């Protein structure tokens, strides 16, 4: 079943709605309290560890971490490079 058929918003809409707010909630209080970006990254590491410890069975985390980090790298490249066509990439 899709999220629509269950009466829920599609996952991408939830991501789009909540991501900016969550980023602000992680970054702003830390910087406002005099912290630095390294403090923000340590907090992010704790959040990611907490979410993954709930979402992934221990022992199966290496594959999930590889996929997770690959996704982060891809999204950062998209932000950095913009919407460009790469030769050989699926369209």
Report on this structure:
The chain is mainly α. It is built from three helices and no strands. It has helices spanning 11-32, 37-55, 61-81. The model is unreliable at 1-5 (pLDDT under 50).
Q: What characteristic shape results from the CA principal axes? A: globular
Strand content bin: under 5%
Helix content: 55-70%
The end-to-end span amounts to 25 Å
**Largest sheet composition:** none
Q: How many H/I helices?
A: 3
Point out poorly predicted stretches: 1-5
Structure summary, number of beta strands = 0
Rg, alpha carbons: 17 Å
Q: Report mean pLDDT, rounded to a whole number.
A: 83
* Sequence of secondary-structure elements: HHH
Q: What structural class do you assign from the helix and strand content?
A: mainly alpha
> Number of domains in the coordinates?
2
What's the SSE blueprint?
Blueprint: H1 11-32, H2 37-55, H3 61-81
Short description:
With 91 residues, the chain is mainly alpha-helical. The chain has 3 helices and no strands. The protein has 2 domains: 35 residues, no CATH class; 47 residues, no CATH class.
Keywords:
68% helix; 3 helices; 91 residues; disordered N terminus; mainly alpha; globular
């Amino acid at each position: 079943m899709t999220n629509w058929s269950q009466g829920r918003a599609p996952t991408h809409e939830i991501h789009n709605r909540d991501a900016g707010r969550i980023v602000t909630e992680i970054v702003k209080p830390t910087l406002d309290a005099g912290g630095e970006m390294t403090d923000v990254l340590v907090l992010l590491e704790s959040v990611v560890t907490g979410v993954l410890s709930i979402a992934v069975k221990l022992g199966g985390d290496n594959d999930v971490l590889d996929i997770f980090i690959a996704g982060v790298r891809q999204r950062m490249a998209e932000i950095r490079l913009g919407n460009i066509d790469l030769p050989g990439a699926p369209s």
